[in-house]
C-alpha cells in the first residue's frame, strides 16, 4: 500500500492542515487520518471519536461566552521567546483557563497572530486602530474583560513603556487601561536585564503592583551567551497564573501584607568585584511561597540569588544593603516583616569607580563602613512599624544566648535562630534546624520564650513559621 508523507505536501495545504489540527487539538498526522476516515466512512464515524488531548473548540462569537472559566489576556511581546508563548497558551488552556491573545508588532516578526488565534479561544488582537478589533472588543474592554493579564515574553522595551505609562499600541494601551492583576515574564539578553535602566523599570513596575516571574538563567538564543534573561518555562508561568487566579481572601493570612527579605547582599569594591556571603536565599524564598499560599499579599526583596521567583509573589531584586533598605522602606506599610536576608554588615567606603589595578605598592587599603541595620531600623520605627517584626540569627556558636541578645538589641518581636556552622550544612543546603525566640511587646527585655523545632526541610520550616504567624495574628479586622 502506498504511504503518504505530510512533509511532501505543498505548503498551502500543509498550512491549512496545521491550522485544522491545532483547532482540533490533534497532531497533523492524526488530522489527516481523521480526514481520510471521514472520506471513507462518513462524518458520523468521525464525530463519535473524540480528539486526543482535544482543546475545547474556539468560540468565535463577538462576545465569547466563557461560562465561568477564569480568563487570561496574554500579551505576546517581540522576542525570540515568543514561540514559548504559543506553548503557554496550551498550558493555560489545559488548566481550564480561557485565553485571549494580543500581539505587539514586534511579536509578529517571531510568531503569527493566526497561530496564536488558532491555539487560543478567539482571534488574536494586534492593532489599536483596527476598526474590526474595536468593533469586536475595544481596547478598554480587552483591558477589563479579563481576570489576569500576562505579558510573555516581556521585552526590555515593553517593560520600559509600561513603567513610563506609554500607550502607543494595543498592548500598552491595554496595560495602561487595566485594573486587573498583571504578571510579567521578562525575556532578554543578560546584559539588557542587568542594565540599570531595566532594573529601575522593574523596580518601578513592582512598586506599581505588577508581579514578575523569572527571568531564569541559562543559555541565550545568541550563540555562546548565557546568564539571567531566559523567559520562565510555560508551565512555570501557567502555575503562577493559576495561583494569581485563585479567589482572593482565602487562607489564614488573607488580607495581610507581608514583606520578606532574602539572600545575600553584594557590596561593591569596584565595578567588577564585590563583598558577598554564602546565603542561598532558599529559606526566605520558601517563606515567601508559603505566605503566598496562605493568602497573604507578599513582597519579597531579594539580594542576588540563583532562584526562580515564587508563584504569586511580588519580587524586587536588589544588590546592596542600602538598596535593600530603600526598597523595604518603599514597601511599607505592611502587617508583618520577616528579615531573612544575610545582609553584609560592612561595605567599602572608597569603592572604586573604575577597576582597581594591581600596583607594585601592594594591596590597596579597603576602608569599611557599617551598613544600615535594616531589621533594627524597621523594628524601631515610630511610624508604620509592622505589627510583627521577625529577624533571623544565623550563628556558629552560643546560638540561643546570641539570638536572645539580638532579639533585645534589634527590637524585633521574634527571632528565628539557626546554627550555620559548616558542620550543620544549612548554608546552601535544603534542611534547617531552627529555634523560635519570642517575646510579647510589653515584656521589653525579659521573658524570652524558646520553641525548638526538629530538623526539617526549609519548605517545612517555612510552612510551620507561617502557621505560627497566622495563629498569632488571628483574623484581620475587616
Ligand atoms: O546582626 P546579624 O546580621 O546577625 O542579624 C541578623 C538579622 O538582622 C537578620 O534578620 C538579618 O536579616 C538582619 N539584618 C539586617 N540588616 C543588617 C544586618 C542584619 O536586616 N545590616
How many distinct helices?
A: 17
Task: Find the structural class using helix and strand composition.
Answer: alpha/beta
- β-strand amount: 15-25%
CATH architecture of the largest domain: 3-Layer(aba) Sandwich
CATH topology grouping of the largest domain: Rossmann fold
> Major beta sheet, specifics?
8 strands, mixed
CATH class annotation of the largest domain: Alpha Beta
Topology:
Layout: H1 11-24, H2 28-41, H3 43-47, E1 71-76, H4 82-93, E2 98-103, H5 113-119, H6 131-136, H7 139-144, E3 148-154, H8 156-164, H9 170-177, E4 182-186, H10 190-194, H11 196-207, E5 211-212, E6 216-219, E7 226-230, H12 234-245, E8 257-262, E9 267-268, E10 274-275, H13 282-293, E11 297-302, E12 314-317, H14 321-331, E13 336-339, E14 346-348, E15 368-370, H15 374-379, E16 388-395, H16 399-410, E17 414-419, E18 431-432, E19 434-438, E20 449-452, E21 456-457, H17 458-473
Parallel strand pairs: 1-2, 1-3, 3-4, 4-5, 8-11, 8-13, 11-12, 13-16, 16-17
Antiparallel strand pairs: 6-7, 9-10, 14-15, 17-19, 18-21, 19-20
The protein binds cytidine-5'-monophosphate (C5P).
Amino acid at each position: 500500500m502506498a504511504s503518504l508523507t505530510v512533509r511532501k505536501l505543498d505548503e498551502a495545504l500543509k498550512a491549512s492542515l496545521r491550522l485544522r489540527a491545532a483547532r482540533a487539538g490533534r497532531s497533523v498526522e492524526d488530522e489527516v487520518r481523521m480526514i481520510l476516515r471521514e472520506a471513507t466512512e462518513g462524518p458520523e464515524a468521525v464525530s463519535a471519536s473524540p480528539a486526543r488531548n482535544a482543546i475545547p473548540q474556539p468560540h468565535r462569537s463577538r462576545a465569547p461566552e466563557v461560562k465561568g472559566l477564569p480568563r487570561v489576556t496574554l500579551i505576546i511581546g517581540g522576542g525570540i521567546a515568543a514561540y514559548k508563548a504559543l506553548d503557554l497558551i496550551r498550558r493555560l488552556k489545559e488548566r481550564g483557563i480561557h485565553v485571549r491573545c494580543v500581539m505587539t508588532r514586534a511579536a509578529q516578526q517571531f510568531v503569527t497572530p493566526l497561530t496564536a488565534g488558532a491555539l487560543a479561544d478567539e482571534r488574536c488582537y494586534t492593532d489599536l486602530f483596527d476598526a474590526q478589533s474595536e468593533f469586536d472588543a475595544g481596547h478598554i474592554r480587552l483591558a477589563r474583560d479579563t481576570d489576569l493579564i500576562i505579558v510573555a515574553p516581556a521585552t526590555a522595551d515593553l517593560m520600559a513603556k509600561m513603567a513610563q505609562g506609554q500607550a502607543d499600541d494595543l498592548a500598552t494601551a491595554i496595560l495602561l487601561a487595566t485594573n486587573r492583576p498583571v504578571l510579567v515574564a521578562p525575556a532578554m539578553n543578560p546584559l539588557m536585564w542587568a542594565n540599570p535602566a531595566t532594573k529601575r523599570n522593574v523596580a518601578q513596575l513592582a512598586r506599581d503592583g505588577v508581579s514578575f516571574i523569572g527571568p531564569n538563567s541559562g543559555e541565550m538564543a545568541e550563540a555562546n551567551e548565557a546568564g539571567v534573561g531566559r523567559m520562565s518555562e510555560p508551565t512555570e508561568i501557567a502555575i503562577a497564573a493559576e495561583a494569581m487566579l485563585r479567589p482572593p481572601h482565602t487562607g489564614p493570612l488573607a488580607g495581610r501584607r507581608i514583606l520578606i527579605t532574602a539572600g545575600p547582599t553584594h557590596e561593591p569594591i569596584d565595578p567588577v568585584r564585590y563583598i558577598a556571603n554564602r546565603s542561598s536565599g532558599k529559606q526566605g524564598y520558601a517563606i515567601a511561597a508559603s505566605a503566598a499560599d496562605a493568602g497573604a499579599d507578599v513582597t519579597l526583596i531579594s539580594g542576588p540569588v540563583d532562584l526562580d521567583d515564587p508563584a504569586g509573589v511580588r519580587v524586587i531584586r536588589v544588590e546592596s544593603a542600602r538598596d535593600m533598605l530603600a526598597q523595604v522602606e518603599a514597601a511599607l506599610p505592611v502587617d508583618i516583616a520577616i528579615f531573612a536576608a544575610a545582609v553584609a554588615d560592612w561595605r567599602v567606603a572608597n569603592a572604586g569607580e573604575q577597576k582597581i589595578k594591581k600596583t607594585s605598592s601592594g594591596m590597596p587599603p579597603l576602608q569599611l563602613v557599617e551598613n544600615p541595620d535594616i531589621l533594627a531600623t524597621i523594628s524601631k520605627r515610630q511610624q508604620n512599624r509592622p505589627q510583627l517584626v521577625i529577624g533571623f540569627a544565623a550563628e556558629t556558636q552560643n546560638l540561643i544566648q546570641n539570638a536572645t541578645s539580638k532579639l533585645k538589641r534589634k527590637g524585633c518581636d521574634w527571632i528565628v535562630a539557626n546554627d550555620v556552622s559548616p558542620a550543620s550544612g544549612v548554608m546552601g543546603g535544603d534542611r534547617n534546624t531552627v529555634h523560635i525566640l519570642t517575646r510579647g511587646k510589653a515584656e521589653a527585655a525579659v521573658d524570652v520564650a524558646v520553641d525548638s523545632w526538629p530538623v526539617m526541610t526549609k519548605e517545612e520550616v517555612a510552612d510551620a513559621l507561617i502557621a505560627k504567624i497566622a495563629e498569632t495574628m488571628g483574623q484581620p479586622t475587616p
